[in-house]
Amino acid sequence: MQRCIITGASAGIGAALARELVRRGWAVALLARRADLLEELARDLASRGGNVVAVPCDVADGASVRDAVRRSEEALGGPFDLAVANAGVGVATHAWNFPIADAEQIMRVNVLGMFYLFDAVIPSMIERRGGRFAGVASLAGHRGLPTSSVYSASKAAMQSFLEASRIELLQFGVGVTTINPGFVVTAMTAQNKVRMPFIMSAENAATIMADGLESGARIIEFPRPMSLLTRFARLLPAAIYERVTAPAARKASKSSR
Q1: CB atoms near residue 139 (< 10 Å)
Q2: Annotated catalytic, 116?
Q3: Nearest one of 114, 102, 87, 200 to 149, comparing CA atoms
Q4: Neighbours of 88 (CB within 10 A)
């Protein structure tokens, strides 16, 4: 039985991916801050025959992550074949009224949270010459999005780190996957006041992710129309990109004052 550890597993994409992997026969360690939701999910999966363990953990605390990985390995009987840094937060951020506390929290959870899981699991993977690390970034990391500047920056940082690490770890037989979702129905997107094109369910997202991870994909992006749109936006000259996005930024500025 293959073993997987997922951060941010108490709800949304993380919980959906845990359900999908358990259905496929994986043993799964569930990590998240919200112990009540985590335990509820673990009980449900166990009742369906799943081999799971729930370990409350703050991904923004390196010591907490290392301890959670150790306890999860002990509970499931060995090191992980797959680690998914899924925990993430995101709120609107505006340059004209910059929320430094929110910005710090986004970077701690999204970027440092990934680093801490990476630090905790990669040495064992290198030693065993096998395993896969995946980070759930976002299509929002392809270009700076007005009103989501810090979130975009955190996801771009994740993408760059994962890309470089993938190249470096090839020699050790360790795979690295970058996962770039578009809009998915979660508690985070429920806060959005803007139109969300091509939005999909967390269950459909989890199926796409599981298929890609099991096949060893380097990059998993969905939905395809949104992926193509954001990749096209990367090719636009700065002047054109600014002209296209400036009206939305001005509208957001007026509505937030």
Answers
A1: 23
A2: no
A3: 102
A4: 27
Characterize 5-35 residue by residue with b for buried, 16 or more Cβ atoms within 10 angstroms of its Cβ, and e for exposed: bbbbbbbbbbbbbbbbbbeeebbbbbbbbee
Give the residue ranges of DSSP H helices in 33-148.
35-47, 62-76, 100-107, 113-128
Q: Which of 99, 203, 85, 205 is nearest to 155 (CA)?
A: 85
What is the arithmetic mean of pLDDT over 118-136?
98
Region at 83 (left for phi over 0; alpha for psi -120 to 50; beta for the rest): beta
Helix-, strand-, coil-residue percentages of the chain, each rounded to 5: 55, 15, 25
pTM (2 d.p.): 0.93
In contact, 144 and 152? CB cutoff 8 Å: yes
What string of H, E and C letters represents the secondary structure of 50-73? Answer: CCEEEEECCCCCHHHHHHHHHHHH
C-alpha span between 237 and 145 (Å, rounded): 15
Selecting among 151, 161, 183, 222, the annotated active-site residue is: 151
**Cα–Cα distance between 56 and 72 in angstroms, integer?**
11
For 146, the 3-state DSSP assignment is coil
Could you give the CA distance from residue 241 to residue 246 in angstroms, rounded to a whole number?
Answer: 8
What residues does 227 pair with on adjacent strands?
none
Residue with tokens 């363990």: 53
Phi, psi (degrees; rounded to nearest 5) at 61: -120, 110
Integer Cα distance of 131 and 125 in angstroms? 5
Going by their DSSP bridges, the two strands 175-181 and 3-7 should be labelled as: unpaired
Nearest-angstrom CA–CA distance, 77 and 171:
27
For residue range 14-57, what is the model confidence (pLDDT) as tens digits? 999 999 999 999 999 999 999 999 999 999 999 999 999 999 99
